[in-house]
Amino acid sequence: MNLSENKKYIEDIKKVAELPYDWSYFKDKSIMITGATGMIFSLFTDVLMFKNLHDGLNCKIYPVSRSLKKLEERFPDHIKSNLFIPVIADIGTDFSLTDKISVDYFIHGASNTHPLAYSTDPIGTITTNIVVLEKLLSTLSSRNIKRFVFLSSVEIYGENRGDTDKFSEDYCGYIDCNTMRAGYPESKRCGEALCQAYIKQKNMDIVIPRLSRVYGPTMLPTDTKAISQFIKNGVSKNDIVLKSKGEQLYSYSYAADAVSGVFYVMIYGKNGEAYNICEPSSDITLKDLAGLIAEHAGTKVIFDLPDATEKAGYSTATKATLDPSKLLSIGWKPMFPIKDALPRTIDILEENK
């Protein structure tokens, strides 16, 4: 079964699509998306195409991908639509924007986002968030686009220095920049600074959603984040393998909440501002997270040490919890607490095996 045919996943799409947002923001507009087949923006794309089909949104989507086959496999229904227009290119080497394509909104959502990718492609991790971003901003600064979205991460906050409980948008924790693993958070930090430079010097309109750790049925099979590994084991009815004591405390968001947050930031966010996105009741330790999944799957938690390659890509943060008050204060409301959404994720993936 294709994910787009799964009843519960369709419910997720509808829940986001039926939120009381000003969807006219996208009416008769066009959006180009890098990272369109990833966990966040594949669902984001599904929501917009749902609105196109059922509400006459008439929003053109230009998904940027190195592989047409990948787009066809992930979006077998959308690929037939004249509102879904693939752009086949490697954004790091051969991407260009022709005058034939008019873009109202651009989302840079492509990035290495999991430990194995950080450790095996550290150069690509950095350049996507800085070099490619600068190329995109430079190209788009003369195209009069309405808004640019740079997807950022909880990782920009680094390690909690012990002087706060939750990270607000103005917090800046500790990162040891002289390590390979620092490539992801430091490049996201630099990417945000680059956005501010283009706002000031080129008068661009840019917003920055900062996501917590995200999970959901749109996660990629190659994802090596701890929660993704736990979920995959739960779906396979295998024991949940914990490669530490599990005392790390993190904030999480279900994919549908992450997507609804990105939509909200796009529509209502202020130019130049960053906004934390997380579900407030979904702060949990890795040990308790593993326990929840094992309980639902009917398995148990076991402990195992990571190999050198895995360990090199792991975050060193022991407490990284987000304060979403800024986004909540302007009206955003998450819908999926982890106690409900985690079993939901496993159930959807089990149905789609």
Task: Indicate the topology.
Blueprint: H1 7-17, E1 30-34, H2 39-55, E2 60-65, H3 68-74, E3 87-88, E4 105-108, H4 115-120, H5 122-129, H6 131-140, E5 147-150, E6 152-153, H7 183-202, E7 206-211, E8 213-215, H8 226-235, E9 240-242, E10 249-254, H9 255-268, E11 274-277, E12 283-285, H10 286-297, E13 301-303, H11 308-313, E14 319-320, H12 325-329, H13 338-351
Parallel strand pairs: 1-2, 1-4, 2-3, 4-5, 5-7, 6-7, 7-11, 8-10, 9-13, 10-14
Antiparallel strand pairs: 10-12
Give a brief outline of the structure:
The chain is α/β, with parallel strands linked by helices and 353 residues long. The protein is built from 13 helices and 14 strands.
Radius of gyration: 19 Å
| Percent in helix | 25-40%
Number of strands: 14
Order of helices and strands: HEHEHEEHHHEEHEEHEEHEEHEHEHH
Give the low-pLDDT segments: none
Proportion of β residues?
15-25%
Distance between the termini: 8 Å
Tally of contiguous helical segments:
13
What composes the largest sheet?
8 strands, parallel
Mean pLDDT: 93
SS-based class: alpha/beta
Silhouette: globular
